[in-house]
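Q: Could you fold this chain for me?
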Amino acid sequence: MNPHEEQKIIQWGKGISSDVHLTLNTTEDERSEEIRLFCRELSAFASKVKFEERNEKEGEKPSIQISDNLRYCGVPAGSELGPFLEAIEYTVDEFAFLPTIIREKVQAIETPVLLRLYVTQMCPNCPASVRTLVPLTVVNKAVQLEIIDAVLFTELAKADDVQGVPTLILDSGFCWTGAISLVEIMEVITNSDPSCFSTSTIERMLLEGNASAVAEMIIENGEFLPVFVDLLVDDKFTTRLGAMTAVEEVTKRDIDLAYGIIQPLWDRFHNVIEPMQIDLLYLIGEAGTRETIPILQTVIDGHYRDHVKEIALEGIESIEIRNPVGS
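A: Sure. Below is the predicted structure, expressed as structure tokens.
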């Protein structure tokens, strides 16, 4: 702990009016000692902070338990020290500010929700993410938050395919990297019906590499989400690519369901630029049946450039291979 951090804790400790009881969860993991050392120094510079050490069972992570539903798996030094101390204050005061509309949604959560937030001590954006999420745990104990140091626990970050920080992972598989929007997070947590998801939420999922999760939602929903076709003709290539990946996943798993996207795609075909037309023709070919062939044939017979017609022809060939005459 450097002198600046020591002074920060000393000043913070002067504002504490009564003892604060936290839990140090330790294991046989050697990283327990790093966290234990931090806890000892914290108590030394803020004497009202008391730690009870508890030995965790095998397979658990060493951590600092701030409350029953909030724990920090790491050493909250560097840029993470401030948000860590603030989290303690929130827990002691049992109050944290949230916009009314968000607070009401959080309070309505009944089924336990586990959030894992990956951070690092040197990340300039991670403190804001911690400050955004910690209030959720104060408002509703059903929201469980683990703040994990991605450098100290590299194996966990690797298992969760963390590519950068901050990264937030919802237990159901949703993932966000970078700036965190409470509106989007609460939309995912509180909406059991994915058809109610906004375009921005679905787009964020696709950009975060969650195309498989989007495909799963489509399959569970039994139809394509109302906003989905808009994403397939979005101006941003990365968004279109993610949406196409989701359609391909649906096509592999439920070709009958995938067929439902063909007419909406064809309805958009004549009003988009050529690169998008090529993408739409590819998807129509992948999801189509023999009944789709006349649609593709109109492109081949129409006034389109050769490379556009070529994609339509490939689509017909793909359909014929999957659906030979007489099958």
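A (continued): The beta strands are 20-26, 49-55, 63-67, 70-73, 113-119, 143-149, 167-170, 175-177.
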